[in-house]
Please model this.
Amino acid sequence: MSRIGVIGAGPAGLAAALGAARSGHEVVVFEAADTVGGMAGSFEVAGVRVDYGSHRLHASTAPEFMALLRSLLGDDLQARERNGRIHLRDRWVAFPLRLGDLARRLPPDFAFRVGAETVTGPLRRPRPDPGFVDEVTRRLGPTVSGEFYEPYATKLYGIEPSRLTAELASRRVSASSPLAVLAKAFKARQPDGRTFYYPRRGYGQVSEALAEAATAAGAKLRLGEPVTAVVAGPSPSLSSAAVTEDVDVILSTMPVPALAGSIEQAPDAAVVRAIDALRVRAMVLVYLVVPRPQYTPFDAHYFPSLDVSMSRLSEPKNYRDRDDPTDRTVLCAELPCWVDDETWSAADDELGAQVADDLARAGLPAPDTTEIIVRRLPAVYPVYERGSEGPRADVERWLADLPGIVSFGRQGLGVPDNLHHVLDMGRVAAATVDGGVVDRPRWRDELERFATNVVVD
Ligand SMILES: Cc1cc2nc3c(=O)[nH]c(=O)nc-3n(C[C@H](O)[C@H](O)[C@H](O)COP(=O)(O)OP(=O)(O)OC[C@H]3O[C@@H](n4cnc5c(N)ncnc54)[C@H](O)[C@@H]3O)c2cc1C
Model:
């Protein structure tokens, strides 16, 4: 049995805590917030449970985790059919894509150009030193890249897409060619091609259930206790304002810059410079309370165009069947931004007006908002910027070799991964603790495997 200190009660930390506690280790989890879930948590707005932006459990979740979540959530884990739309020029295209809908709704010149580029696709040669745009264009053609991925990437990452790396395309774009997209669109005609899973009480119920199971297995959960000091090495420890815990191993999901800032054995100057060089995009989430039972029947709307400032709009009530209030609904608009820009610091009513303006531009009804609630996430999308490959590799090397500490999860590795990926990381992180030490060769192999994760949107 080992003593394990876990930092963070998001899904990654909780999966690690559950795995470690069920393997008989003594586990204590420190969480800075008063609730569990991290950015996959849920909270209430006007009596409606909402998430930090559109969240769903994807059908690609490994059977092992589906079985775990089914056992923890029972009937509360609902299978749902995706029902989203993409705003493309002034039209709406169903998302996930569907063949019939594409035929009816794609602008004819767009469809024609994509068709021609599909035929000429095999002639497109990989460029030397390709970036994000080269890679997406090689796979999907200039029209899909130029009209969808490039503006969307500009919005999400805040820089010219030509400055993003090909690695980002590998991590975020699963489609290999327009024909693969069509094959998927064909599959989407069958109901299970569009299935996702969602808990009755909001996405945060996944983390709440994991926390309950970890606690039942013996883990101690210290909520509202940010870890402020960490000691690495053969006798690691972690401290909050209230306590210091001496442990055998620390499993950390805290953001890399925060870990570097709180660790006694500070990284050398080159690693500090590398951490500073890695930029992360923030997000402001604007929740509008709308005095009608439903705003639209769609779960999510996607806005690639730069004419609309939000990247996505979701309506949490449409993700589940439950006894939500019938006289109101809540919309959640995602506004990617930088932590030092105008959007980040805008007042709530300004943000509400900006979203209402976006809705009008997209031809959606006026929301007649009765209440605006704003939440801010400082670190959402790691920016895989050309030129940052060296610093990223330096940071990865530093993290992989930290004695007594395993850093994982979305912010602990600085990756854009889904919940099902971080559950896997948590399970593996716990499993690499053997006899009070971390099995480093195994962890390094697992890190290589995590690097092949592809995000599902
Ligand atoms: C807008 C948006 C939409 C998304 N949609 C989906 C989706 O549809 N499907 C999907 O699978 N995934 C989705 N994701 C990704 C999903 O939210 C993440 O994969 C997941 O939350 C990552 O979990 P984590 O535990 O690694 O990190 P986090 O959720 O960031 O949790 C880290 C935890 O550590 C805590 N912490 C940080 N510092 C300290 C400290 N010093 N001491 C103690 N605690 C600390 C934080 O408070 C937090 O609770 C989405 C993410 C965003 C932002």
User: Anything to note?
Assistant: The chain has a mean pLDDT of 94. The pocket of flavin-adenine dinucleotide is lined by residues 7-13, 30-33, 38-40, 52-56, 58, 226-227, 253-254, 258, 334, 377, 380, 409-411, 417-420, 422 (CB under 6 Å). The first helix runs from residue 11 to 22.
